[in-house]
Amino acid sequence: MNAGTLAAEQFPALGALPNAIHGFTLRVAGIEVSRDKVEVVARLDSVHREIRGEHGLGSAPFVTAQQIHGAEIGVIDRATSENECLGSCDGLITNQRGVCLGIYVADCCAVYLADSIRHAIGLVHSGKKGTELGVVSNAIRSMAEHFGSVASDLVVQLSPCIRPPHYETDFAAEIVRQCRDLGVKSVNDSGTCTACDLERYYSYRAEKGRTGRMLAFLALTQGGAVSKPPF
Question: pTM of the full predicted structure?
């Protein structure tokens, strides 16, 4: 399958940063959906790897989170060459160049965090429960604790996620509020509802659990082993 026809969605606020590569994959034609997350992610893996490769991240270590709808943050603060899934966490932060962070969603929000001053990034899985637990706020505080990040310097981007009237609560609006309460000035919301466009996105709610997953990915690249693609 040619990943050139499967380009990941880009967000202008992140695209303007000189030291980060990001993407948000779309629905993949021809891949059978499933009620089992592990099974469907495995089916999508080869396509997702191709897409990461097109973004210059084909050889980058790929780190994901277990995603248990909690508020714990996994920290990658030393060099790694291994692909791994960090258990019992819903967010990932790193200051390591050339490491690709990944979060899978199908209605929940993938929240990208980027500090281009101190060269640190984060990627968070935040649905209704995670938002109530303040997982994004925890990630922002963790970036401050581990990497010296200042909230007002961060660029925050919310991915497409489910929204009213297709869902009973607007957790995206709550994520934005929490970020602003911590002092983040650049909070960018895609404003897109996954349940509104099943040709482009997967939606757990709209598809009654039998669905796929979009992959949000983010890597810090300045001075690292990978280079930003020419677009």
Answer: 0.93
Cα 18 to Cα 101, 131, 222: the distances in Å are 17, 29, 7
Residue 202 — left, alpha, or beta (φ > 0 → left; ψ -120 to 50 → alpha)?
Answer: beta
State the DSSP code for 146. H
Domains in the chain and their CATH numbers?
A: 15-220 (3.60.140.10)
Starting at the edge strand that comes first in sequence, how are the strands of the sheet with 20-24 ordered?
20-24, 214-220, 100-105, 62-65, 84-86
- Judged by DSSP in three states, 76 sits in strand
pLDDT 10s digits, 157-171: 999 999 999 999 999
**DSSP helix, strand, coil percent of the chain (3-state; round to 5):** 25, 25, 50
Q: What is the pLDDT of residues 96-140, one digit of tens each?
A: 999 999 999 999 999 999 999 999 999 999 999 999 999 999 999
